[in-house]
Design a protein that fits this description.
Mean pLDDT: 89
Strand order of the largest sheet: 1-2-8-5-3
Number of domains: 1
Bound molecules: protoporphyrin IX containing FE
Strand content: 5-15%
Helix content: 40-55%
Number of helices: 18
Low-confidence stretches: none
Shape: globular
Oligomer: single chain
CATH architecture: Orthogonal Bundle
Number of strands: 10
């Protein structure tokens, strides 16, 4: 009797497991939407768990893994990645689909709850985390300050002042002959520059060492990146010993920036914070301190990490490509002569330096992944059916390395940018495209090239161990082990 009962019990259990395997053969358990089975799944897919095991097993290389799937020989029009209890992502890798979701049918593809649920505790309702009317109002306001005229003024004032401090720090490092982590220094330099440009404040993180709120920013960026691939992030977050305090530090930093300005006798400066402070909602009310802090925090994240990481990868790419490095030094010396810091017009004249910056971002885009949630059922121009609630994703990292889009895609060739015909924003997606294209694109290019040229005019950089330079999973594309360099002063 007992044996018979056990036999039925084991049989039933095996039956349930087999049924689960059959039912969740193509999609992870709890996937919120089922995608048509005719769209191929990622090779790393397992029944029930989808792609989660492979993604979190080597989380820092998950971007490379996605790139290999999208640029692999079996990729046709789209591939699906599902992880348990989350929206499935239908990845595309062609400019037509990217144009469709980011522009042609913009209204149907939003950030949605996927992003909100993962980022709101840090970013609140900042521009990265909003859709519709809220997004539009913030975008219009910010665009008023992020103008080319203001960038030109910034070059002559803030950039020149800050680069002087940066060069001073690098001089001391060169004299001491001790290796330094350029990845960390770039983050501190751009934090200070951005604090000054956007909020008119001196953060002094370069000259006074790393403040604790910067450590919190860094750690939380990584946590937010992990949340995008790990569906079990609420559990991981619960056991994260730093997270609660880090978020508190970041929010307090944002609120302090606001409160300090509100307390000023003359708060009518020409910067982002003044604009947000003077803004009135439709009902005539002003933004609260908390809302203003959302903007402060979001713009620091937008302006600091992206450009700092782009320059870190630029030094890495130049070290791997001596011919490009020589050509760049030649242009800098020809145009600057004895002058140590470039002027606005000289940066515009430096075709090769601008090409170097773009070429680095093609291979190492600071925002390597993009995803938008479909509001309604839809069909992409390539015929792929998109169910309501699924995410349509694309990877600037994969598109930049696609042989279908770039000749000799894996080669670092700044020369490809010297042609008069430039690729469209739907091919070169490092700054996104459509109505949500990066608002700071021109500023980033100007400040990136200005900084690169200024430091190369003054110093030589030797990366100590090229093999140790690795990507790290995050919202952006930081370096896992930093970028340790030996610096010498140029004669
Ligand atoms: C190399 C530097 C940079 C790169 C590669 C870059 C790239 C991007 C990308 C890919 C997006 C879209 C992100 C998304 O879909 O959520 C974006 C958005 C944005 N970026 Fe940048 N960015 C850079 C620097 C900057 C700077 C310096 C600013 C300064 C203000 C800035 C401001 C913004 C803003 C405000 C948005 C949100 C736009 C919107 O949602 O309407 N970015 N950026």
């Amino acid at each position: 009797m007992e044996n018979t009962r056990n036999f039925y019990f084991v049989g039933a259990a095996l039956g349930i497991i087999s049924a689960a395997f059959w039912y969740y053969k193509d999609d992870a358990i709890g996937a919120t939407v089922r995608v048509d089975k005719s769209v191929p799944r990622f090779k790393i897919h397992n029944p029930i768990l989808g792609g989660v095991l492979q993604m979190i097993k080597d989380i820092d290389n998950s971007g490379i893994l996605i790139e290999e799937e999208l640029n692999g020989p079996d990729f046709d029009r789209a591939k699906v990645l599902t992880i348990p209890f989350a929206e499935p992502t239908i990845f595309v890798n062609d400019p037509e689909s990217v144009e469709y979701i980011t522009n042609t049918n913009f209204e149907n593809y939003i950030k949605g709850t996927f992003t909100k649920w993962r980022l709101t505790d840090v970013l609140g309702n900042g521009i990265f985390n909003t859709d519709g009317h809220d997004w539009f109002v913030q975008r219009k306001l910010s665009a008023k300050i992020l103008t080319n005229r203001n960038f030109k003024l910034n070059i002559e004032t803030v950039f020149s002042e800050n680069i002087g401090i940066f060069i001073g720090v690098l001089n001391a490092v060169a004299e001491s002959q001790t290796p330094v982590d350029m990845h960390s220094l770039f983050h501190r330099y751009f934090m200070d520059s951005f604090g000054k440009i956007a909020y008119g404040i001196d953060l002094n993180s370069l000259s006074q060492g790393i403040p604790s709120y910067v450590v919190s920013f860094d750690r939380t960026q990584n946590t937010m990146g992990d949340r995008l691939v790990n569906p079990f992030f609420p559990i991981v977050d619960f056991f994260n010993p730093y997270l609660k305090n880090d978020i508190k530090m970041i929010r307090e930093f944002g609120e302090k920036v606001v409160k300090d300005r509100v307390g000023e006798p003359h708060n009518d400066r020409n910067d982002l914070l003044s604009l947000f402070l003077s803004h009135c909602n439709e009902d005539g009310s002003k933004l609260t301190t908390e809302e203003l802090a959302d903007h402060v925090i979001s713009f620091i994240l937008a302006g600091r990490d992206t450009t700092a990481q782009a320059l870190s990868w630029t030094l890495f790419c130049l070290s791997n490509n001596p011919a490009a490095k020589t050509a760049l030094y030649k242009e800098i010396d020809e145009i600057l002569g004895d002058q140590l810091i470039p002027k606005y017009d000289q940066i515009k004249q430096m075709k090769y330096a601008n090409a170097v910056f773009k070429e680095t971002l093609r291979l190492y885009p600071s925002v390597p992944r993009e995803g938008k949630v479909a509001v309604n059922d839809d069909t992409l121009p390539n015929g792929i059916k998109i169910p309501k609630g699924a995410i349509v994703g694309f990877c600037p990292y994969a598109m930049g390395r696609s042989e279908k889009l770039w000749e000799n895609a894996s080669a670092y060739k700044p020369e490809r940018w010297l042609n008069s015909k430039q690729p469209s924003n739907y091919v070169y997606t490092a700054f996104m495209c459509g109505p949500r294209i990066c608002l700071g694109k021109n500023l980033a290019e100007l400040q990136g090239v200005f900084t690169l040229v200024s430091i190369l005019k003054n110093f030589d950089f030797e990366i100590i161990d090229l093999g140790s330079v690795k990507q790290k999973m995050s919202l952006t594309l930081p370096m896992k082990n930093g970028l340790m360099c030996r610096i010498t002063k140029r004669k």
